[in-house]
Design goal:
Layout (H helix, E strand, L loop, with lengths): L1 E7 L6 H14 L4 E5 L20 H6 L9 E2 L5 E3 L6 H12 L19 E5 L8 H9 L2 E7 L2 H9 L1 H10 L2 E7 L4 H14 L3 E7 L3 H7 L4 H4 L4 H21 L4
Parallel strand pairs: 1-5, 1-6, 2-4, 2-5, 6-7, 7-8
Antiparallel strand pairs: 3-4
Helix pairs in contact: 1-10
């Protein structure tokens, strides 16, 4: 199983959108894949047309002693996803206390299962500043950690000043992908160049463009690759998926 953990440098950079669309792109390359939403906001379900009345998710199943697999859904586009679930106030406190008491935190919940050993597993985590000890072992178990950033002054300031980010970067050595790139914006172009220079080989050679089809697709409870397959962002997401496939293929043959 190839486990990719996805997070964002800060809130609002588009990590949820990338996780939701990366699964679609990988499926189009004939890969078996499922995605797990480990963010309490439970927003990944927006991209898979899960009815708002459904409060089910792995967190609610785990609280009653069930496996995360029991909360898996198949979307109308035949994509496998596991929502976080909608918790009550008491359930929020209970799950936090219970996860904090586990020796390996979330990793003890998302143990590898024989049924999915041949699949890609994408796990969407909270943004870097929200990560805590319960996420560390899961991050350590990943075959790759992907951190989403935007090329702007806010992200760059956080990149320079945040102690939690520097600890995260040193320990987990993530790859970074620039999202919401705007080629007509001098700031976007300049900060993209700066990030590529300072992150060097950690920065993927792919720019995911800002595209109005992303919120349009989300409002239609769909992913952008299906909603606007010829859009620039869709092409970039397919390039990202292909990069992952090539990366792991090279790793398997020992060339990396």
């Amino acid at each position: 199983m190839k486990r990719i953990v996805i997070t964002g440098l800060r809130a609002g950079v588009g990590a949820t959108t990338i996780a939701a669309n990366l699964i679609q792109a990988l499926v189009q390359f004939d890969q078996s894949v499922h995605v797990i939403d480990a963010r309490p906001e439970n927003l990944l379900c927006l991209h898979f047309a899960l009815d708002f009345s459904i409060k089910d998710g792995w967190s609610k199943r785990w609280l009653v002693g069930e496996s995360w697999k029991n909360a898996a859904y198949i979307s109308n586009q035949n994509l496998a996803f596991v929502p976080y679930g909608l918790l009550t106030i008491d359930e929020i406190k209970s799950i936090k206390d219970n996860i904090d008491s586990l020796p390996c935190g979330l990793l003890d919940i998302f143990l590898s299962q024989p049924e999915v050993e041949s699949e890609w597993q994408l796990i969407l985590l909270p943004s870097v500043n929200e990560l805590d000890n319960s996420h560390v072992a899961l991050l350590d178990s990943a075959d790759m950690v992907l951190c989403v950033i935007n090329a702007d002054i806010q992200n760059y300031t956080y990149f320079q000043q945040s102690v939690s980010f520097h600890d995260f970067n040193m320990r987990h050595q993530p790859y970074f992908v620039i999202n919401s790139y705007q080629p007509l914006s001098v700031n976007s172009v300049d900060f993209s160049f700066v990030f590529k220079q300072e992150l060097a080989e950690q920065c993927l050679p792919i720019l995911l463009h800002h595209d109005t089809s992303v919120p349009d697709a989300c409002s239609q409870l769909s992913n952008v690759i299906k909603y606007a397959p010829h859009s620039q962002i869709s092409q970039g997401l397919k390039e990202l998926a292909f990069w992952f496939i090539a990366h792991f293929a090279l790793k398997t043959t020992g060339d990396l």
